[in-house]
Amino acid sequence: MRLRLLLAAAATASLAACAVETSGPSGDPSPSQDRAPSTAAEEAPATGPLGWGPTAGELDQARELIADWDSDRLAGQLIVGRYAGTDPAEVRALVEKLHLAGVCVTSDNVADTDQVMATTQAVRDAMAADGRDFPAVIGVDQEGGTVSHLRGVATDFPPFASAGAAIEADRKQGRKVVRQASYAMAMELRALGFTWVFAPVADVTIGAADPTIGSRSPSEDPKIAARATAAAVKGFNAAGVVSTTKHFPGHGGVTSDSHTSLPVLSSTFAELEKHDLVPFRAGVQAGAPAVMMSHIAVEAFDARRPASLAPAAYDVLRDTGGFQGIAITDSMGMGAVMGFDQPGIKALVAGADLLLMPADTAKTHAAVSRAIESGRIPRERAEEAAARVIAVQLWQQRIAANKQVPTDVVEKAQTASDKLADLGG
Hints:
The chain has 425 residues and is an alpha/beta fold. It has one domain: Glycoside hydrolase, family 3, N-terminal domain (TIM Barrel), CATH 3.20.20. 46% of the residues lie in helices and 10% in strands. It has 16 helices and 12 strands. The strands form 3 sheets. A 7-stranded parallel beta sheet has the order 3-2-1-12-11-8-6. Strands 7-9-10 form a 3-stranded mixed beta sheet, with no helix packed on it. It has a two-stranded antiparallel sheet with strand order 4-5.
């Protein structure tokens, strides 16, 4: 009851100016029934939408915002920081001092509902104090199943394997249930103050030999995984939460864990095209705003470096995959990249737009700032990356402003979770 009251109060207070959410037959909000924006700040720019969320006008607006930023501010906008403990004041100080794009909240940073909401508010306060009037990246690994960092605070959802099983059981109904589950999960995250979710997992697992992904994967069948990924992306998009399709080009086919070492995927490019890349292509076509680059070496691209540090991997994502949104690395504190000198700089030069959770946020910020100043990271590359991030945040702000979090968000999340578990059980 305490959780329901807190979430309901937060949703109502923070979005009092927004219209009440109405739903179409699928359970997603009916676009025809959403209220029209009442202020210029809520209106989409006149130029048309891009395929990854924001409009071209929002991207232009983002470019204008950063045109005169110094290297310190620009560097911060390329980093989603990690932090220790549960003190919101420390989070605020970190984001404000380093001008960070935002932070990733892990289970180590979670005490209870009040503390989580105080933390997300602290990040918003830091952005305002730093003169940035667009939302921060306030993200969390909340996939469902074993990877749920808000356990005890947010609704437990089944592992994403249930999404694939639901679609396999009933393709039409399964996709609807997956979309509804992602929408409901996103709405609950928004009530807690989050703007990003590091999901869905698009990896195609190989089964028992896969030690890292397993039930986090929607399926061993690329086509089923593709349908689950696309449905989840659509649900997150509709709710105004930035999703992160991961872990490109597919972590489910390796037999070691990138948290501790550098796995190598030996598939040919033709094999990747028919297998691992299929769900990522579906996610991009569904409007994925962000794709997470894995820390696995892919022999077809670059056998010596993880995809997150390999220019060839970004070329495949952009040129072959047609993705123009945010490329974010997996956590930069993982074993697969810790052996490389200044991996954050290498990732940004290779094509990453955001560094997720460097091992030392402050040291990485200083190194990236120096690299921009010296030209090691070309200013044009840094601005390109920062503009993408800000454009997506402007899009998130606009969508969220017109989709009110319902006061019964917890009950709706539980219902959606139960439906997914029932059909995909």
